[in-house]
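Good morning,

Attaching, inline, the backbone tokens for the sequence recovery test we're adding to the shared suite. The designed sequence is right after.
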């Protein structure tokens, strides 16, 4: 069952779309429930769209507990191809934040990574 939220756009995978290098890595991050991904749209003079991922703490390396940016061009290509989709808007006075998740087409592509090579 597909649930569409107000303002959400349904994306359909475009057959034969060529994805940029790094697409498989970004799909892996989006698919990992311990690393939530958000689309952040800021408003005002410095308006921009960015995709960020939460990095959980890694005691082995001593890194994490912060947000890191994902490559915007790769995320936009995955969004355009219908492999990821933004969720409902979380309102904030200075920006819109949407969680990002895999679509059914994204799950299928993730299951067979050799089906597309950049």
């Amino acid at each position: 069952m597909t649930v569409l939220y107000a303002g959400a756009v349904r994306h359909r995978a475009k057959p034969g779309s060529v994805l940029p290098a790094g697409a498989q890595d970004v799909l892996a991050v989006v698919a990992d429930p311990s690393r939530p991904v958000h689309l952040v749209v800021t408003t005002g003079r410095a308006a921009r769209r960015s995709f960020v991922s939460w990095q959980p703490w890694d005691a082995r390396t001593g890194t994490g507990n912060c947000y890191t940016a994902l490559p915007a061009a790769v995320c936009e290509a995955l969004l355009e191809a219908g492999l990821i989709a933004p969720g409902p808007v979380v309102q904030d006075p200075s920006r819109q934040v949407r969680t990002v998740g895999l679509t059914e087409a994204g799950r299928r592509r993730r299951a067979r990574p050799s089906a597309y090579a950049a």
